[in-house]
């Protein structure tokens, strides 16, 4: 009985802490959004952005709290559902909320210039490169499921939370590089980003199919659970990546690229008439 009470207390603390962190994050965003609207009432702050951030924190809550969290510890399918929520769906919602832009609107001018300088620094350019973002978010899946790493994380609570942090941060980085509305240093064009997104889609499909077929995977779980997890990864990942592609396409403004050509044509016509 004492052991059972200790385990229950540990589980309660493990669920209470992420719930408090998520509530604090949501409250901080709402506070900053209110401050941005007060500072510039004409410009305001998009309620859609706010809704996106709240949706992202809610998805993280679904993944990290009961009933999904206990299932993820016992069933590989629950782990994969948790992985998809933390690493793909929640990051997309959080990134579309433009938290960096919100921070820039609420910081004092001097602090804002410092943050902008950091965003355009050489290390930030390396971190925000699509190749690195792709390797961290998608390439790491092969390392996780085709080596003993996944099994090691199931035996260590610290490693398990570190895995959650990796899923979330790498997912946010990839979504930010591909379709984030926040300013990004040296972000490639839309066509290049579509290529990177296509590579991610193909990699997810290959990894999930190899997992379903039992090729090279190193996962200590019943076969039906591994195959079910592979299906969740395949179909759930496809939906998330289609949503990311839709977010990317909405940022494409071809008319702005044609404007210089129109201006050049108008200049030539004026010259000819002259």
From TrEMBL:
Superkingdom, natural source: Bacteria
Cellular localization per UniProt: Cell membrane
Protein name: Putative membrane protein
Cellular component aspect of the GO annotation: plasma membrane
Keywords, comma-separated and alphabetical: Cell membrane, Membrane, Transmembrane, Transmembrane helix
Stretches that traverse the bilayer: 12-32, 53-72, 84-105, 126-147, 159-178, 190-212, 232-252
Membrane topology: Multi-pass membrane protein
């Amino acid at each position: 009985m004492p052991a059972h009470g200790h385990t229950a207390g540990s589980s309660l603390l493990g669920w209470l802490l992420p719930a408090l962190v998520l509530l604090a994050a949501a409250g901080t965003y709402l506070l900053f959004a209110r401050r941005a609207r007060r500072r510039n009432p004409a410009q305001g702050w998009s309620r859609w952005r706010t809704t996106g951030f709240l949706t992202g924190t809610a998805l993280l809550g679904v993944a990290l709290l009961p009933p999904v969290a206990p299932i993820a510890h016992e069933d590989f399918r629950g782990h994969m559902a948790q992985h998809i929520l933390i690493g793909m769906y929640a990051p997309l919602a959080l990134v579309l909320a433009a938290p960096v832009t919100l921070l820039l609107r609420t910081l004092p001018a001097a602090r804002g210039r410092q943050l902008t300088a950091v965003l355009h620094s050489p290390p930030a350019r390396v971190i925000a490169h699509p190749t690195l973002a792709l390797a961290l978010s998608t390439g790491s899946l092969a390392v996780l499921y085709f080596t003993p790493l996944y099994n090691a994380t199931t035996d260590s609570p610290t490693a398990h939370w570190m895995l959650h942090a990796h899923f979330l941060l790498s997912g946010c980085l990839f979504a930010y590089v591909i379709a984030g509305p926040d300013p990004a240093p040296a972000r490639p064009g839309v066509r290049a980003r579509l290529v990177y997104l296509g590579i991610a889609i193909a990699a997810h499909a290959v990894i999930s199919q190899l997992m379903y077929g039992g090729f090279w995977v190193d996962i200590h779980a019943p076969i039906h659970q591994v195959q079910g997890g592979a299906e969740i990864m395949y179909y759930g990942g496809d939906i998330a990546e289609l949503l990311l592609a839709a977010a990317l396409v909405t940022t494409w403004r071809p008319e702005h690229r044609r404007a210089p050509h129109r201006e050049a044509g108008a200049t030539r016509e004026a010259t000819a008439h002259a």
